[in-house]
Amino acid sequence: MYDNIGGKIKGLAKASFIVAAIAEVITGIALMATDEDLIGYGLLVMFVGPIVAWVSSWLLYGFGELICHARHIDKATS
Questions:
Q1: CA nearest 48: which of 23, 24, 30, 27?
Q2: What is the pTM of this model?
Q3: Rounded average pLDDT over 59-68
Q4: What single DSSP character describes residue 4?
């Protein structure tokens, strides 16, 4: 369960980006379908939302990279 935790964290970062991007697109479509006044907001959510999700996933992916490199350094020095 705790083997290769760095790789699992990186996989979680990728999965969370995909889920968030899909949710943002669905939310944007729902906003546009709900009211004509919300079409601009719906488009904004559809296009900016996945970009924000992508940038925010960098932190989690970077943490996974740090763990992978720390394990590699630990194995090399022991």
A1: 24
A2: 0.83
A3: 96
A4: T
